[in-house]
Each structure stands twice: as C-alpha cells, then as structure tokens.
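Quick question: what would this complex look like in 3D?
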Amino acid sequence: MRLVVARCQVDYAGRLTAHLPMATRVLMLKADGSVLVHSDGGSYKPLNWMSPPCTVREGVGEDGRVEWVVTGKNDDTLRIVVDEVLHDSRHDLGVDPGLVKDGVEKHLQELLAEHPASLAEGLTLVRREYPTAIGPVDLMCRDAAGASVAVEVKRRGEIDGVEQLTRYLELLNRDPLLAPVRGIFAAQEIRPQARVLAADRGIACAVVDYDALRGMDDSEHRLF
Amino acid sequence: MRLVVARCQVDYAGRLTAHLPMATRVLMLKADGSVLVHSDGGSYKPLNWMSPPCTVREGVGEDGRVEWVVTGKNDDTLRIVVDEVLHDSRHDLGVDPGLVKDGVEKHLQELLAEHPASLAEGLTLVRREYPTAIGPVDLMCRDAAGASVAVEVKRRGEIDGVEQLTRYLELLNRDPLLAPVRGIFAAQEIRPQARVLAADRGIACAVVDYDALRGMDDSEHRLF
DNA sequence: ATTTAGATGTCGCCT
DNA sequence: AGGCGACGTCTAAAT
C-alpha cells in the first residue's frame, strides 16, 4: 500500500471519460495495482479509481512532470499527472483476515428457524424459504393447534416489511389446504408505524432478542 | 484529511453488525468526519466505513488503548480499537473542484438526436426516448424513404445492447402503422461479437465519432 | 424534501 | 464463466 498526497490532475477513459482538474488529493495505490483518488469529502466512493486487475506504469510526461498511467481491462485507462508531491509513504499491511458480517437478516432467519418457539408458544417449523408465486416466505410454521403461520423476518421492522407479509398472507389464504394462515412479523426492532399497520392487518409482532437467540444457538452446538 | 496506518480492530453496528479482527489497515479520516477503513486489496469499497454526516470521538478504552467511536445517523456506530499506530499524518486538501464526466450514454444520445444524419444518409429524428411497453427506444427516426428506424445508443457496443434493440424491433414491428421498422446500433466502439450478432439480426451498425459530433455541436451553438 | 432511475456500481450466490 | 439479486448500496435529477 502506497499513500500519496499530491496536487494532481486525473483523466479517465473507459466506459465513459471523466476529468479532474488540478487539485490536491489523496492517492491510494494498493498492492494489487488498483488506484483510488480521494478528496476530503464525499462518501466512501473515490472521485476516480481503477479497479483490479490493472497495472500501474510510472512515467514522465512531456513537460517533465511525473505521471501514472493505470491500465485496466478493456483498455480502460486512468492517467494521473502529478504537479507536486506533498506526501509519499509505503506500508506493508499483509493480508486482511476479512470482514465478518453478523446479524444480517439471513442469520436471524436461521436462528429463528432453529428456535421457532421463541416467536410464539408451541410454534414449530414447516420449512424455511417456503416458496410462493410472489417469492419465498421466510418461515412457514404451524402453531400448537396445527394452524399455519407465516413469518416475515427483518432486522428492522418497517412498513414495507408488513406490506410484504400482507401480500404473502393474501396469497396463502387462497389455498384451501393452508387457510387460515396467520402472520407474525419478527424483527430486532419494530417501528411504531409498522406496529400500527401490522395490528390493523391482524398481524402479530415479535421483537427478537438476537443475542439471546445466539446464546441458545451456542449452547446447543458447542456444549461448553 | 488524516491518514493513519494502524493495527486495529473494527466493529460496526447499524443496519447490520460487522466485525474486523485485529490487523494492519489504512484509516482515512476525512474533514467532514467520515471514516474509511481500507485494506490492501478489494475494490474502491472500504472494508468498513462511516458516511457523513457523522462525528468522531477519540477516547481511551478500558485497557488503555486508543479508540475512535464514530457516530452517524440512526445510532449507527463504528468503533475502531487501535493497537499500534504505524503512521499518522494530516493534510490540508482544500475543496475539490469536482469531477467532470463526459461521454455518458445520455450525452451521446443528445448529440445524435441533433445530428441523426451522421448515422445514415437522410435520417431525420421523430423523437428521442420514444416510449414502448418494454421501455423507451433511444432514438426513433425516419429515413429518406419515410420508413421507420429505431436507434439504440451505447458508448460501447456489446451483445446485450444488440439484444435490447432486437426486443424493441420485435415489438415495434407488430405495430402496422410503424412496420417495417429497421434498426441501427450506434456506439463509439462496437465489439466484433456484437457486430456479428447485429448482422445476423439484420441490424445496421454505426460507429460514432464522438469528438466530431461534439465539434459540430460546438460550432452550431457557440459560433466562434 | 422525497422519490426514482442510473452507476466505471460492487459483491456474493448459484447454475 | 455468466446471470441474477441484494446492498450499510451511492448519486444526481426530477417531482
């Protein structure tokens, strides 16, 4: 990883052409050849960049100024003309162990599939990702009395999630073999608006304690 | 802009939770408070980040290690525990003049709408973004003989663009008021595969000289 | 301010 | 490898 702060001008030609006038910016040159041009604002997206795989060629322009030409696929090129270097350092970062994502809807769904009774007394799983014509229902269950229960799982319960579950219920209740099907809207946090809408639709809300569920999961699987 | 290279551990909690184990990474702390955590690979997307508006609070953890807690909207938090700082520098970048994009499909379409004859002798524009049930046709024209011509504009002509035009032509030719409609696939550069497919479908290809078109545009509008 | 469509999207899963 | 969908999507234009 090489970090450079420099007054520079950048031109990109590839899918489109783009130009950055001369100004002071941060250049990040990664080990795989990729280059990022960042300013002191905006979001995580650079002003300009070249994605790997690509190669950097350092040269000297007509006027004697240093320039980098980064070549990617499809003859995409990023040309950086450097007017003045204010900082230049190299760092050995090694390989990153990588990001661990957790608490994503999928994981929450898996945990609830293992512990459906945490949603309602006596609930048992029929199947996860129960297929319907308009998409899969997160969890299809049966309650203690044997009636069908459709569960929609979200990390944050908002109105559109309730709408989604409503559509599923409307469809599922047309099937005489399943009807009547009731719904449970399960989330770590449920917004007041969503709660009101769910009540209006006759849908139950279940606030899920993610850490507690994960604890149950650990104790079952690891036994120590 | 502050650039830090450090052995650090990062935890994010917001829409999801994510964890980065202790490793050496680059931290970019921008003037607006936003923070980017980059490794020495991947694309321009950081491993983890906090978008503005947000605030950074520098503190000391229980074990005496420096930590940054970045707080954003909706109680999103990014917590960075620093084990060892390998580099730390600050830079005044000033305000960036910003990116100038050019040659995006829309711009090319505008230029061709002004100069349809550059695609084929005697071609005149009927309308731009001609609506159909499956989406708008970039340019609908008429040739010297009065027959309809549908034009699909791309910066780079690839197979999917030919497929797109094929779908439009298939639909447009069902309309007895328009049929027969022929097609022109216009791009600054047309890939051999796309050219072959277009020929097979009876679609003409037109390679557009963007700079020449822009020149015509300038001379018309600026007159100097 | 809110919504909508495009993006040099990127990323991951699946066939 | 190629297609499809989700994303902490981001971004800018139009309403």
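Answer marked as accepted. Residues 73 and 211 of chain A are 45 Å apart (CA to CA).
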